[in-house]
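ugh ok fine here u go
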Amino acid sequence: MARKPRIEFEGAIYHVLNRGNYRSDMFEEPGTAQAFVKCLFEACEKSGWLLHAYTVMRNHYHLVLETPRGNLVTGVHWLQSTFGNRFNRFRREHGRAFQGRYQSILVEPGVHLLQLVDYVHLNPVRAGITPLEKLEQFPASSYRHFVRGLEGRPAALTCGSWLQALGGLGDTREGWRSYHDHLVWLMADPARQKQAAFDRMSQGWALGSEDFQHDLAQDFKQMSAARDWGGPELADLNRHDWNERLLSGLQILRCSLADAGAAPKSAPWKVALAAWLKNQCSVSNRWLGEKLNMGPPDAVSRYVGELARGNRAEAADLVGRLTTKVRG
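structure:
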């Protein structure tokens, strides 16, 4: 039976979660969890995601993310495959890093988003991994970034909308003290957690009011009739975005797609373009290999990896030129 396509649209908010594919606790070592978090923020930068909350447990992760570009599938694919490759290289393992298809549950903004953020932040506390008074020190959670203020906070993290839903709190020291008190209040009584639907945060297809779910269902009936579940059309939009960026880079380097057909597969300007594009979006190695005549996906990955390790100085200079021209 074919899998149902993901529901994707611009501005959607999701609870995304998945579990490791190894019998031992995949994220038990702090370094592994931090490597996943690093990869997560790279995915946010490439995909333009906004991250409302995250936590990495011993063998699974929870993300509360918003997709302004409607690109959940390509972004999560990049996140899981990239981390999986890095994890396998480090551990000298083979196979998938994650058990199977990740869950992605649509979330209604406002109170329901706030309740999900609470659930994600309290996950390590409820699991007995850390007491609430030391949650700020738990390294694999967005909570510590938020409560420590704006300085040093990753750019993708966002909190304004769900803080506002909690009595209009602001992103200030006083606001975070009030949010901490709110979490203390929730942990003081399991009935409050049940009322906040903590037991249903990882179930179903949507978290929200009946009206929210009804409106979504009506929208997706029309989308399904139009053969538009966000799959082929959004894939086309992604390819269009990649192509526009590629043409912009070619113009800066004064090269063309015709030149790509004649030049060596590992020509410095082609490696530079590939690395530059991969740094700013979720472009695939297969697409790059075909467009720039660089060979199969693993060849593109090898060339870009060599550049990252400092072995392609000429290509690195061209990446700097591309970056400077675009920023200027």
